[in-house]
């Protein structure tokens, strides 16, 4: 009888662990296939991000929260860039390109900046309307977390560290 109780208890522990894993990963899904047009005219695709942990930030120069969070995004990039971390800032279609260029140059943004001229990238990523909207993409190209508004940066750093440690 004791063996049966141990087997039942063991089965419950396994079921609980599997259930927890399913719940924790239920919001994980593939990042949409997109082509980002960078300020220098070059292009980068979602596929190019594979193998890196990537922060994709939809923002606008007219968004006060976006402007306020940008130093934290720069600090996050600087902290993790040497460990396989990438940042891609995607300016919204309504943001005048000259404003985006000026902001990028005056703030010396060290990461890639794209302009979503047509709105197609924002649409593909969930029809983004609110800025800032930030996605964290793992090495397998899966969106593991999204934020509307400024992220909790200490929490974000813990997530990035965990994702960078994954094989």
TrEMBL record:
Any one GO molecular-function label of the UniProt entry: oxidoreductase activity
* InterPro entries noted in UniProt: Redoxin, Thioredoxin-like_sf, Thioredoxin_domain, Thioredoxin_ResA/DsbE_sf
All copies of the Thioredoxin domain together span: 25-165
Database matches in PROSITE patterns: THIOREDOXIN_2
One Pfam family this sequence matches: Redoxin
Name of protein: Redoxin
Its source organism is Pulveribacter suum
């Amino acid at each position: 009888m004791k063996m049966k109780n141990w087997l039942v208890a063991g089965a419950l522990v396994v079921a609980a662990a599997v259930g927890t894993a399913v719940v924790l990963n239920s919001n994980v899904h593939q990042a949409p296939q997109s082509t980002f047009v960078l300020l220098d005219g070059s292009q980068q695709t979602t596929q190019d991000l594979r193998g890196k942990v990537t922060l994709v930030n939809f923002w606008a120069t007219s968004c006060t929260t976006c402007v306020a969070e940008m130093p934290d995004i720069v600090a996050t990039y600087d902290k993790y860039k040497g460990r396989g971390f990438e940042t891609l800032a995607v300016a919204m279609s309504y943001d005048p390109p000259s404003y985006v260029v000026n902001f990028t140059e005056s703030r010396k943004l060290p990461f890639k900046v794209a302009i979503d001229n047509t709105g197609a990238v924002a649409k593909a990523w969930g029809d983004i309307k609110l800025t800032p909207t930030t996605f964290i993409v793992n090495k397998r190209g899966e969106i593991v977390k999204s934020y509307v508004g400024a992220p909790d940066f200490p929490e974000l750093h813990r997530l990035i560290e965990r994702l960078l440690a994954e094989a």
